[in-house]
Amino acid sequence: MDTQRPKHLVLILAREFASNLSTPTLIADARGNLVYYNEAAEAVVGRRFSEMGVMPADEFAAEFEPRTLASEPLPLEQRPVRIALDERRAAHLRYLVTSADGVEREIEVTAFPLFAQTDEFVGIVAIFWRV
Amino acid sequence: MPLRLKIWGCRGSIATPGTETVAFGGNTSCVEVLLDGDEALVLDAGTGIRGLGLDLVRRNKRRIHLFLTHLHLDHLEGLRFFAPLWDEKVTLDVWGPRSPVLGLRERILRSFSPPLFPIDFRDVPARITFHDLPGKPWRSAGISLSSELVLHPGPTVGFRLQAGGSTVAYLPDHEPALAGIHGRSIDWISGGGLAGGADVVLHDAQYLEEEYDGKIGWGHSSLADAVAFCDAVGADRLVLFHHEPERADRALESLEQRARELTPADRSPPELAREGMILEVS
């Protein structure tokens, strides 16, 4: 994985924005690699981003066993991050995860695509809340 | 052949002619990449391009590539007085950052029409073509170039130029500190992909540290941030660019001394850009 690839300015600005938010926020690049999450997200994830490094966003999400509110496995194509990456549109969903402390939690996730110029897709931002 | 550049304008924001700006010059941003043959490659069209244009006519350069970092007036205002425009034998390709709203041509031509200018663009005899900058590296006049959006208000790019094993980064208007320099890996620093490992970086250093505090977000760097940027991206030689209009020659000399104090010992000492300066990059 080419982790040293220069980041698009929009991702750099998104990271700076996220780093100043108290809302858990993560950023993935156009290839679907999780490239950053903020300190507020670290509290939920249970690890600092600097300890984890860049990884595919799907792989990251799988660690938290996302499930529907009926406790069924949540298909990839219904996950807001995946929708923002694949369909390049905003998406929102409430679902269940098992957080780092082993507790099942209900969360809401909003993900949206980042377009730098008229048609230049550079990644996505996902914001999540504990319900 | 390694890159050779000539600075025709390095003043920031507004032209500042006068007895106090003779040594470093009062013209706004314009840099020529010196080439053999009938082609010319130019970075920005500040007021420095007026003198360059007269020189290009004398040198019979008729295929001109102009690359604009952005369209703020101090980078564009010389274009209307660029002598090659008035020669029908000249071919001018103008490249600039894309905008989500209007094409480059439409944006530039606003300044070529009344009430801002008496002559309509249709009456300009040179053959002019406007291009959005490509998203990938490209070659022009034998030089490899790439551009990236960088931190400055509005769509603004910097350029990386490579030839003959030499690399130059041109970032005349840039405020990387706004999104962080210290503690960031190079891939997360605005402009890092352009300036990384460059032999020479022409970089915005408009403000002293104490001035910057009141101007955060204006799009320009403090001297300390320019030095820190070059250090963080592993560039060698910093050329301080986009001089504050209020800064007279003697004050600029003090600024250069301060930059040298801030620079790590293993780097080349920073120097001030000045009109007429020729940078031999090896």
How are strands sequenced across the largest beta sheet of chain B? 6-5-4-3-2-1-14
Radius of gyration of chain A: 14 Å
Helical stretch count of chain A?
5
Q: From N to C, what is the helix and strand string of chain A?
A: HEEHHEHHEEE
Regarding quaternary structure, what we see is: heterodimer
Number of helical stretches of at least 4 residues of chain B: 6
Main sheet: strands, sense, barrel of chain A: 6 strands, antiparallel
Find the structural class of chain A using helix and strand composition. alpha+beta
Beta-strand portion of chain A reads 25-35%
Mean pLDDT of chain B: 96
How does the helix and strand content of chain B classify structurally? alpha/beta
List low-pLDDT spans of chain B: none
Q: Could you state the CATH homologous superfamily of chain A? A: PAS domain
- Report the major sheet of chain B: 7 strands, mixed
How many domain modules of chain A? 1
| Separation of the first and last Cα atoms of chain A | 34 Å
Mean pLDDT of chain A: 91
How do the helices and strands follow one another from N- to C-terminus of chain B? EEEHEEHEEEEEHEHHEHEE
CATH class placement of chain B: Alpha Beta
Q: Classify the helix fraction of chain A into a percent range.
A: 25-40%
Q: What are its keywords?
A:
heterodimer; A: 131 residues; alpha+beta; Beta-Lactamase; six-stranded antiparallel β-sheet; 5 helices; globular; B: 282 residues; alpha/beta; Metallo-beta-lactamase, Chain A; seven-stranded mixed β-sheet
Q: What's the arrangement of secondary structure elements?
A:
The complex is a heterodimer of chains A (131) and B (282).
Chain A: H1 9-19, E1 25-29, E2 33-37, H2 39-45, H3 49-52, E3 55-56, H4 57-62, H5 80-86, E4 91-98, E5 104-115, E6 121-130
Antiparallel strand pairs in A: 1-2, 1-6, 2-3, 4-5, 5-6
Chain B: E1 4-9, E2 30-33, E3 39-43, H1 48-58, E4 63-67, E5 91-96, H2 104-109, E6 127-132, E7 138-140, E8 143-149, E9 157-163, E10 166-171, H3 192-195, E11 200-204, H4 209-212, H5 223-233, E12 237-241, H6 249-262, E13 271-272, E14 278-280
Parallel strand pairs in B: 3-4, 4-5, 5-6, 10-11, 11-12, 12-13
Antiparallel strand pairs in B: 1-2, 1-14, 2-3, 7-8, 8-9, 9-10
